[in-house]
Amino acid sequence: MSQSPKISFCISSSGRESSLNHCLQSIYNQSFSSFEVLVATSCQEMNQNLKNCKVFLCENHVGKTRNTLKSQAKGEWLIFLDEDVELIGTDFVKYFLSLVAENSVNVFGGFYLSASDASLIDRAYNMTCNLWLLKSDLQGPQVLGGIYAIRSGDIPDYYDGYSFGGEEHPYFSLLLKNNFQIKVCKDWKVRHKPYHTLRSFFRRAWLHGLFKPTVNCEKLRWQLFFSYKENMRVKVLAGFYFFTVYSCHISHKVLRWKFSWPRWAGKPRTPAV
Q1: Contact 79, 10 (CB under 8 A)
Q2: Using an 8 Å Cβ cutoff, are 153 and 159 in contact?
């Protein structure tokens, strides 16, 4: 690899070694070779097993993990990934660089693609994730989750409040306030294998209702929902997901109801102090 890489792949890992190995292999298979790979993990054993990449031990916290990766990356572009995704094909990076050449923006966002053997739950979850990546009255994408790339330079620190996906919205709102130009590319995709259970699926929906924005874009989101290319069973499950999201949002943000954390959702993660 070059000492001055064009791309820095920044991967957050919670310790799922098998998923991470598949992710890394999809990177090493790329036809473009000017890149470096950085992994931030809280797993000591994984730190000893990983080869051909830079490994940083840190607590299992999304915001702080990505700040660590950002501070250590040397590439011109930083591509942020989670361990449960895989790059599609060997020309993934070349396609991204073609997007860079065609668009004068600071940030690119992409989408999730389900594996051919993905479960009904995982297909529904990927669909819901993709429906968050839309433009609205917020004058930009609400969140960028599946995959995103940021040009190195004066990048603000990642939001380090909630150690969960809800931190994406305030971070990308901050980028927009700092006049970063963001482009969401429908053909820039990664294969996502979250391996959700029904419980973890609805737990995510509940958390998204608490922390992600749901206002100003309901009409557009539902238009995209009905035009989204998936089978009816997947759409029905995705519909229950958004029902849970909006139910949580209305009760918590609008009606200001006080209620106990539901037992089925598991233990909540609170803001870091």
Answers
A1: yes
A2: no
Q: Is residue 137 part of a domain?
A: yes
Cα distances (Å, whole numbers) of residue 241 to 208, 238, 248: 10, 5, 11
Q: Is residue 72 part of a domain?
A: yes
Q: Mind listing the pLDDT tens digit for each residue in 197-207?
A: 999 999 888 88
Contact 11, 56 (CB under 8 A): no
- CA–CA separation, 48 vs 264, rounded Å? 35
Q: Closest Cα to residue 108, out of 141, 154, 70, 71?
A: 141
Q: 169 in the Ramachandran plot: left (φ > 0), alpha (ψ -120 to 50) or beta?
A: alpha
Residue 49 lies in a domain: yes
DSSP 3-state of 182: strand
Q: Report which listed range, 33-42, 176-185, 255-264, is most confident.
A: 33-42
Burial (CB count <10 Å: 0-12, 13-18, 19+), residue 74 = middle
Phi-psi region of 256 (alpha: psi -120 to 50; beta: other; left: phi over 0): left
DSSP percent split of the chain into helix, strand, coil, nearest 5: 40, 20, 40
pTM of this prediction exceeds 0.90? no
Q: From 34, 63, 57, select the one nearest 170 (Cα to Cα).
A: 63
CA dihedral 196, 254, 216, 171 (to 10 degrees): -60
Domain containing 130 equals 7-195
Mean pLDDT, the chain, as a whole number?
A: 79
Give pLDDT tens digits for 17-62.
888 889 999 999 999 989 999 998 877 666 556 667 888 887 766 7
The number of distinct structural domains making up the chain is 1
* Eight-state DSSP code of residue 255: S
Q: What CATH number has the domain bearing residue 161?
A: 3.90.550.10
